[in-house]
Amino acid sequence: MDSSVPLDVGGTFYRVARDTIEHHGDSMLSRIVSTHSNENGAENAPIIFIEGNGRLFEYVLDYMRTGKVYLPPSVTRAAMKKEFDSYGIPADMNKVVEKHGNEYARDLAARIEAKQKELDLLRAEVFAFQLSHLLEFQALASRHTGPPFCLYVMDNDYPPCCKNNQDLLRQQLASIGLDLVSSMQSGQNQHCITVEYADMQS
Q1: Interatomic CA distance for residues 101 and 92, integer angstroms
Q2: Domain count, the chain
Q3: Are residues 68 and 20 in the same domain?
Q4: Is residue 106 part of a domain?
Q5: Is residue 167 within 8 Å of residue 130, measured between CB atoms?
Q6: Which residues contact 34 (CB under 8 A, 6 or more apart)?
Q7: Which residues form a coiled coil (predicted)?
Q8: Residue 130 pLDDT more than 80?
Q9: What is the DSSP string of 170-189?
Q10: pTM of the prediction?
Q11: In a domain, 109, yes or no
Q12: Which helix (H) or strand (E) holds 38?
C-alpha cells in the first residue's frame, strides 16, 4: 500500500503521509481519503481534490503532524479555527500559537531559558575540565605542599554561570573526581579556586 496520499487543496498540491491522516480517523479529511482509497484502491488512488484554502492547509498539516502549530502574523487563530472545523479536526486551540502574540512570546522565553541552562551546563563542564588540567600541573609543581590546591583564574576566564552558581561548578567538578573547597576573589582581576581530589577528603 502506498504510504502517502496526493491532495490538491484549492489548487495547491500536497503529498501527505497516510499515517498522518489516519491518526485523525474521525475527521472529515480522513473519511474523504478512506472513501477514495476504497473506490480506487490505495495504490491507484488519483489526486484527491479538496475545496479549501491551500495556503492555510499547510498549518493544518503542521498541527496534524506535531499536535502544535505556530502561525505567522498573516494568519490568525480565528481563521485556523474555521479551517480545523471545516476538516472536522477537533484541534486544541491552546496549541495553535500566533508568533506575534503574548503566548508565543512566553513560549519562546521558556525555550530560551531551557537552552541557556543547557549552555551553562556545558560551560561549567568545560571549565571543570580546565581546572582539572590546572590541578595536574599544580600538583606536579608543588607536590611537597600537598592538597588542597589553590588554582588562580582570571575573571575573564571564570564563566559567570560558575561564578554565580557554585553548586553547578561543584557538581561538574565532582563528576571528574574533584571537590570544590572554596572560591574567592584574589587580587583585582583574579579568583582563587581551591580544589582537592575527592579521595583525599577525610
Answers
A1: 17
A2: 2
A3: yes
A4: no
A5: no
A6: none
A7: none
A8: yes
A9: HHHHHTTTEEEEEEEE-SSS
A10: 0.50
A11: no
A12: helix 28-40
